[in-house]
Amino acid sequence: MEKNVQILLFEDNPGDANLIEELLEDFADFPFELKSVETLNEGLVLLKEHQFDVILSDLRLPDSDGIDTFLEINKRNSRTPIIILTGMNDEKIGIEAVKKGAQDYLVKGQADGRLLKRSIRYSIERKKAEEKVQSLANIVESSNDGIVTESLDGIIVSWNKGAEQIYGYSAEEILGKHMSILTPPLLVGETKELVERIKKGEKIYHYETSMLRKDGMEIKVSITLSPVFGGSENLTAISIIARDITKRKKAEEELLKSEERVQSYLQNFRGIGTQLDENFIPIFLHGAVAELTGYTKEVFLSGKLHWREIVEPEDLTELLKKVQKMKATPNAFVKHEYRIRKKDGEIRWIHEIIQNISEENKELYQGFVYDITERKKAEEALVAMKESRIKEIHHRIKNNLQVISSLLDLQAEKFEDPTIRQAFRESQNRVISMALIHEELYESGEIGTLNFAAYMQKLVENIFECYNIGDHKAHLHLEIEEKTFLDMDTAVPLGIIVNELFSNSLKHAFPERDEGIVKIRLCREENWECKSNSVENTGVENPGRDNTRGDNKSINLILTISDNGVGMPETVDMESPCTLGLQLVTILVDQLDGEIELKRDSGTEFIIKIAVKQKQ
User: Which of 246, 279, 303 is the last residue of a domain?
Assistant: First the structure.
């Protein structure tokens, strides 16, 4: 604990209050500030005005008594750890308070300074740990992957929505059952072996195997298994993360069969063998010359037609360069693929191998060519299939995310509490920000890079619509570096960052005003006054899409999101933010190996710098 620990004490007995202060002064090994109140209402007022790290509370106060004292404090300050101070006769109430959420309880007259110090330290750290666990639990529950925990004797003790989608069992149906319910009979031995490896402390990543669904269907999954340790570092359970790869494996099998058919065809196709003199005129030819070229072998042997004359001009230059290099090196050989034009005008792809076999003063070359036209067609078809499959994946992911967004919207309508509804709306916006990325990739035809400028236009337009900005005279000034193309690993977290900070400005920056300005700028660091798509209005216009491409290169990008609103409270610390949105921002900036700076000079300004590889 480096900063002063802010402690609030509820105690109406001056003697007991003085004793607590003396114990802290004598035994606390951390700096602290202690404030005391004698009544519940006085303390609740103080809690509205100040933030405390820990609360010490007697249960018997002039205006409150018993467990109700704790419940009232906890209801108003659920994120602050509470330690109950009880008399010897109230110990049972202290235990009840711990069951209802208090971090600890101490019996007056029995607690010494060391115990008090330790209880304060542990309570603060335990509360932080609980919040982290809850955050991780939320992430686990929203994952599309199946995340399961099994005890060391194979009993399923946790089961998320992703597991329900993959295996078909609901949590109510599966919890308490043995993992063998998901294991095909022939793989029971394999499963036991994996478990034994985990018990020895090993981690297993992306292990591909088969599992059983509720309907009896056998599916292919990629699983990652990890040991789960308890507080004493003893192995207590096994974590299993599963991803359904059934469709992918089927596609791979089809591709493999296709490649095998192509290879079989090539191996059975008749090629041409030849030996050439120093001028590359064939001395003899054998094989399917007429079938491959449309000319008889006598035409080539007589020198009336040179092989290079049937090579397509666009391919000839490169072939001649390789041949010249090969001629200068004894025993060297050239492998090359190029196109020839048959006598009837048909274009065929061939694969050629030529080797320098010169001996003493005699230049000789031998070679072999065979038709690979069908293989080339198959390769082109495979590439087109891959691109089509990836495009379809983007489309399906976008559709699934939109379904999740709709479900969140429907769920939000069921809650009357505006805070809960707002939390659902914010989660919905995060999902939409990711869905828009897959939509942009699907519509643009690109499979690996995203036109971030076009995506940003859609994203801010959606956020405007979500917060009904048409009725709110908020203006957006948007400047985006033209031809900014980012990969998925950069675009997804950067899009969520924009969603969080832009939404935050629209929700909180202008509470007392009808008008305000929010500015979003994305530029290269060396080009601060950037050539950009610039929009300033109460909505967003799409400036169109530029699909210009080039080579990868690393650039530094600066994302600035600012507003001229009321400003960010001084209590907000970006190193340890207290809201989920800002926590997400800091986590994602770290994920991008970036830097974030918060300025409060005039309104609020976030400056984020990242280095990315970009296609222009």
Answer: 246
